[in-house]
Specification:
The chain is an alpha/beta fold. The chain has two domains: 73 residues, Urease, subunit C, domain 1 (Roll); 238 residues, Metal-dependent hydrolases (TIM Barrel), CATH 3.20.20. The protein has eleven helices and 13 strands. Strands 6, 7, 8, 9, 10, 11, 12 and 13 form an eight-stranded parallel β-sheet that branches. Strands 1, 2, 3, 4 and 5 form a five-stranded mixed β-sheet that branches. Helix 4 packs across helix 5. The longest helix is centred in the middle third of the chain and has 18 residues. The model has no long low-confidence stretch (mean pLDDT 94). It binds zinc ion (ZN). The site of zinc ion has 3 residues, from loops.
């Protein structure tokens, strides 16, 4: 099956041969290669060839032709940080925020992640899957072409496995690639509020072997933050994940300069995500590392927090993912 898109106003993000960049840093992020007035041929779901309209072969024929006059053609989004599987939305927390409570206060009162965990553990796996696949198709319809999905609302062996098995089923039925992350270290469940080591032991000794045994996750995630997981606790978790081949990829510096960026870089995390709270030490740590700073402006918007310092990172010569 061949599809030919013709008369494209701008074909965006075209990189070929030696000019092709695998990673883009700092100032180079402003360079966006574009071919104006272009054509693109797709064969069996893969890009076959493309170029300016002047170069379109006369004999080129396709079963399906699309006239893209006045339109752009661009790559789909790669969404590297999602919590797409969840049991219930948390709109009550918008009301709490309007009434003046902040994120930490809502979390301390049992809202936030713990509220999501309670609802998730009350929901059947099949129901969770049915809700999640609808959301997956919604984000695909909005242009997402690859997605990471986290666990982290189970906060116990059974709940985390339930989430990750739902993600595996999504992966089996999804038309786009899905990467699962294991995020039991999202919050301390109430029964471990005063016994952090007990929960960490449970993640390392009970959950990780089961998750790895079923091959349910590619990445090891943790919420490194004051009131959540300390730098030392995060380090222990990342180290344990690495033993099972799970690459580190963490939540860092959302509410405070928690040391999350530094511990992520130390364990060669593929990304440190959030980064609302950044300073010189964090930027220095990211220089000369392979860790990608990943900004989540949607989270800052919905939590009514200030946005992440994207310009500061780009001016420091760093790559930035959104
Ligand atoms: Zn997150």
């Amino acid at each position: 099956m061949r599809t030919l898109i013709k008369n494209i106003k701008s074909l965006v993000q075209v990189e070929e041969g030696t000019a092709r960049r695998s990673r883009v840093y700092g100032k180079e992020m402003a360079i966006l290669p574009v071919i104006d007035h272009a054509w693109l041929l797709i064969e069996d779901g893969l890009i076959h060839s493309f170029g300016p309209m002047l170069t379109i072969p006369e004999s080129l024929a396709a079963e399906r032709e699309i006239d893209a006059t006045g339109r752009l053609v661009l790559p789909s989004w790669c969404d590297s940080h999602t919590h797409l599987v969840f049991a219930a939305p948390r709109e009550q927390e918008f009301v709490d925020r309007i009434n003046g409570m902040n994120y930490a206060e809502i979390a301390a009162r049992g809202g936030g992640i713990l509220n999501s965990a309670k609802r998730l553990n009350e929901t059947e796996e099949s129901e969770l899957f049915d809700q999640s696949i609808k959301r997956l198709h919604q984000v695909i319809d909005q242009g997402t072409g690859a997605i990471e999905i986290k666990s982290g609302y189970g906060l116990c062996l059974e709940g985390e496995l339930k989430m990750l098995r739902v993600i595996r089923r999504l992966k089996e039925q999804s038309p786009i690639p899905i990467k699962p992350s294991f995020l039991a270290a999202h919050a301390f469940p109430p029964e471990f509020k005063e016994n952090h080591q007990g929960y960490i032991d449970s993640i390392i000794n009970d959950m990780l072997p089961a998750v790895a045994g079923e091959g349910l996750a590619d990445y090891m995630d943790a919420f490194c933050e004051q009131g959540f997981f300390s730098v030392d606790e995060t380090a222990a978790l990342l180290e344990a994940g690495l033993k099972y081949g799970l690459k580190p990829k963490i939540h860092a510096n959302q509410l405070h300069r928690s040391g999350g960026v530094q511990v992520g870089v130390k364990y060669n995390a593929i990304s440190v995500d959030h980064l609302e709270s950044m300073g010189t030490e964090e930027i220095d740590a990211l220089r000369n590392s392979n860790t990608i700073p990943t900004l989540l402006p949607g989270a800052a918007f919905f939590l009514a927090m200030h946005y992440q310092p994207a310009r500061l990172l780009i001016d420091a010569g760093l790559p930035v993912a959104l």
